[in-house]
Automatic annotation (TrEMBL):
Keywords: Transferase. The keyword Ribosomal protein does not apply. Coiled coil: none annotated. InterPro entries: B3/B4_tRNA-bd, Phe-tRNA_synthase-like_B3/B4. This is Phosphoenolpyruvate synthase. The keyword Oxidoreductase does not apply. PANTHER family: CYTOPLASMIC PROTEIN (PTHR39209:SF2), PTHR39209. It is an enzyme of class 2 (transferase). It comes from Pyrobaculum calidifontis (strain DSM 21063 / JCM 11548 / VA1).
Length: 221
């Protein structure tokens, strides 16, 4: 059983997390395609590109970027905001894989960033949400290795899975043969815990369409 220990509560960062086992990440069942399109349609009917940045949930993540992450959110947008902007411009969600696409659908539905990790690649069952140590190296998906200095990370034993709350590691990337998935929904001050839990439960529903079965209850850290 995976356990996440939160060592950065003073920043306001918190997570809901879940483990779903036995997914089939090779084929898109029609009900999943329909659920993803439904999330897109809901976003387009309820949100506006012009006012998205002022939505209270999006604003909470932008404020966290400025205050804690020290990143300009107009240059490095929160992951869910970037996806929503794409959708609200009339573009489709990226087609990557059934598991990743389900995660993106949950992200735009609940306006929260969601990290998905191949559990078989995670080193150990105890993970920590903590400040990085000087000299630690992060290997991002789609980018060059980054030497870290005082950034919030989700880490296992000698392994950085995630830069909080916006970038995942290639080391634990979801791939075609992934079967067991660790789900991490990232929260910040001003975002209700219930929103994170609802996102995780919705993702359970989508993963069940891929044959996935949740292990235990959604956990909080």
């Amino acid at each position: 059983m995976v356990v996440i220990i939160n060592e950065v509560r003073d920043t306001g960062a918190f997570v809901a997390y879940d483990v779903v086992k036995g997914v089939d990440n090779r084929e898109y069942p029609p009900p999943l395609v329909e659920e993803i399109q439904r999330a897109v349609d809901e976003a387009r009917s309820s949100l506006s590109l012009d006012t998205l940045k002022d939505h209270p949930v999006i604003r909470a993540y932008r404020d966290f970027y400025w205050r804690v992450v020290k990143i300009d959110p107009t240059k490095q947008r929160p992951a869910q905001e970037a996806l929503l902007r794409r959708v609200l411009r009339g573009e489709a969600l990226p087609r990557i894989s059934p598991v990743v696409d389900a995660g993106n659908a949950a992200s735009i539905k609940f306006l929260v960033p969601i990290g998905l990790y191949d559990l078989a690649k995670v080193k150990g069952e105890v993970l920590r949400l903590r400040w990085s140590k000087r000299g630690e190296v992060f290997y991002p998906i789609g980018g060059s290795p980054v030497e870290l200095d005082s950034q919030i990370v989700l880490a296992a034993d000698g392994q950085i899975l995630h830069l909080y709350p916006y970038r995942d590691s290639v080391e634990t990337k979801i791939e075609r043969d992934t079967r067991d998935v660790l789900v991490v929904v990232a929260g910040v001050p001003g975002v209700e815990l219930s929103r994170l839990i609802d996102a995780a439960l919705y993702l359970r529903k989508l993963f069940s369409l891929l044959g996935g079965v949740a292990e235990g209850e959604v956990q909080i850290a």
